[in-house]
Amino acid sequence: MLRRLVVLVCGALFVISAVPAGAQSERAIDVIKVSGPLDERAIDFAITTITDVAPTSELIIVQLDSSAALTARWSELLRIVQDPPAPLAVWVGPETAIAYGGAVRLLALAPIGLAAPGAEIGAADPPRHGDTGLLPAADGSEPALLASGLIEGRTTVEEPIEGVVDGVQPALTNIVQALDGSTVLVDDVETEIAITRLDDDGERRPITTRFHEQGFVDRTLRLTLSPATAYLFLLVGLSVAAFEFYAAGVGVAAAVAVLTLALSGYGLAVLPVNWWAVGLGVLGLGLYLFDFQRIQLRIASILGTVAMLIGARYFVYEPPQLSMAWWSAALIVTSIALFFLFAMTTVVRARFSTPTIGRQHLVGRVGTAETAVAPEGVVLVDGARWKANSRRASGIEAGDPVTVAAVEGFILEVDPVESDA
Questions:
Q1: Which of 53, 126, 143, 321 has an alpha carbon within 20 to 30 A of 10's alpha carbon?
Q2: How confident is the model over 55-94, as pLDDT tens digits?
Q3: Are 68 and 128 in contact (CB under 8 A)?
Q4: Domain segments of the chain: what residues?
Q5: What is the pTM of this model?
């Protein structure tokens, strides 16, 4: 029985291997979604996906929504878009999409350049920020962009723009209908695009569509390629770390601080930030901490607010490609101020009022261990639960009697009760 099964499997594999490659892989439309500033990860994703799908793709549509290119590797993507291995269109869509800097140059140099009505394009200079690798002084898009006033200016797409936008299409379905049967040059060969087929009812319908998007990790990292998000994560991470320090909690706030600071670190590493503005933001938080330790609003808090506001506005200042609006900066700083005003003030008041309230009367009291204290745990003293620790290997188990040796803030230092035996 086993031998017969092996023979059948081998026979099936032989038949499959004998089928021509074109018969195994159905032709399809490939939609590659590229959104946000074009960093190394986005460019690698776009180039790799275009190369991988080209052999079985009838049409590749790069759905573009990008404010800037952040690396000189953008020129590699530019070359593959100019001379693609399969019919390719760049579509700036949907209607809220934008294409500035290097993104609008991709649109202008693509074999088929499309945009949704309402999409905004322009601000073609600078082509990219970041790395200083070799980049052609003229990439071929200059004449059309100059003639359209898109080198410095911007425009909302309502109709085709000569040399930049070949057609205005509101959705992917409209693109399929408009391009079916058209021709385009691929490797200097005129190729007809056939992206619909007749079904059993005699009606023409689009062929299979495959959608490609970056993975979860890449999408999460790319959140911080927005200057507002990167700055917010930086201030939130530092604020939550300060909260953890004052609250002396169980580590949840510390974990949140580490996560937000790590995400912000990606944005700081990739975006063309002004480091003096980053320093102003950190200084502003320091001034907040200086005042809030004293549970009062003084000139330091006002100066801290101003410092964070200026730091936010000029965190990345490359208008209109990469910049933060004043209202975004004000919203971020207001959120941090409210956090300090309510959450931090409450914690600091509780922490620093401990000497005034006084807990030294607990020293010498006898209680019971609710959990093992090895070396940290929870004890019950005078009917109240307290965090406790023991500086030596006390062997305190749940239910054992303990005596309070010292008080440090909200934490009791305990020792086992010595038996008389």
A1: 53
A2: 999 999 999 999 999 988 888 999 999 999 999 999 999 9
A3: yes
A4: 24-214, 218-352, 360-416
A5: 0.73
